[in-house]
Amino acid sequence: MPFLGKDWRSPGWSWRKTEHGWKRIIYYEHELEDNREIELKELCSDNKDNLFAGDVCELATTKRKKDLDNNNTKSQFVFEDKWIYVQKGSTKELHGYCTLGEALNRLDFSSAIQDLRRFNYVAKLFQLIARSELRSLSGAAQKNYFNILEKIVRKVLDDHYNPRLVKDLLKDLSMTLHGLTIHAGRCVLVGNINTWLCRLEIIHKWKQQVNNLQIPKQMCNGLSLNDLPLHMQNKILCKLSDACDIINLGQATPTMHSLSEDRILWKKLCHFHFSDKQFCTNLVLSKSDNVDWKLMYFTLKKHYPMREQYGDTLHFCKHCHILFWMDRHLALLIKDCGHPCSAVDPDSCHMPISPQHFIDLFQF
Hints:
Layout: E1 14-18, E2 21-25, H1 40-43, H2 53-72, E3 83-85, H3 100-106, H4 109-112, H5 116-133, H6 139-159, H7 163-182, H8 193-211, H9 230-238, H10 243-250, H11 254-260, H12 263-273, H13 276-281, H14 293-303, E4 314-317, E5 322-325, H15 328-334, E6 350-353, H16 355-360
């Protein structure tokens, strides 16, 4: 069967006749015997002796254009898929498996970070990947990872949204890159060591920018936080699931500080994150033999993982083995479940996926 495509072997050699016999024409960096370099423009001219000169010029032009596009393009993959099939083994119908890097390339994380409901989820997922899975990613997945990370940092710098979470992400990523570059000879790295050193330098630059971030004060002539009734201010604090956010909000006004020290508030926070069994083994009593719920929270935090809460997450269909983003607006309008599901009751097969569960799906 003939090979029809153009590759590095085609179009072959070109020859010219001289007084001493036939001489092969060398197109690129070499010179001919008469010290005359052959230019691509000359080769592209209507020269009947060089039958393949036009093809060579076309190939060279295409290659230069391709290299220029690769240098100017941030990511090698431009997928905007909302779902991906998670294949974990070979069958008669399908051969192979889906990797973490493939899921990172295929799923549309670039649009997800623009949604405030999904931003914390993506940032937490990238933090877990930075801690343990970064070296296992392919070269294209690593490139896509750092491109999306740049968009995350840019969103924090522009919109001042959740800088503390991104600080922790960059801190863990910096420690991982530092360890990989130090032990470069002991572990296998995808790509040149200079590429990893350049990435480490960029991470340090981003850390400095986020640490120096100053959120400007917005002057408003309308109602402020102090103008709200006490019960509404208390409800705002009760909606927060992070102790650091409660403490930071308590520093805004003296009224918010007194509300942030309420025992009932910290009791609800402890019951939200931890179970009763964990309370029994780590009781913290005050001098009046009452439970110090604030101290109790920070004590339990050292020993047990906290409950994670996100506005929106990736979902996994147990019937189809598909990982997908669910568009709630489309689901309400046209009853779209987010992926081509063949189940009778698709809603009963969906389950939210935490960032750690997302990584565990691709552990083989």
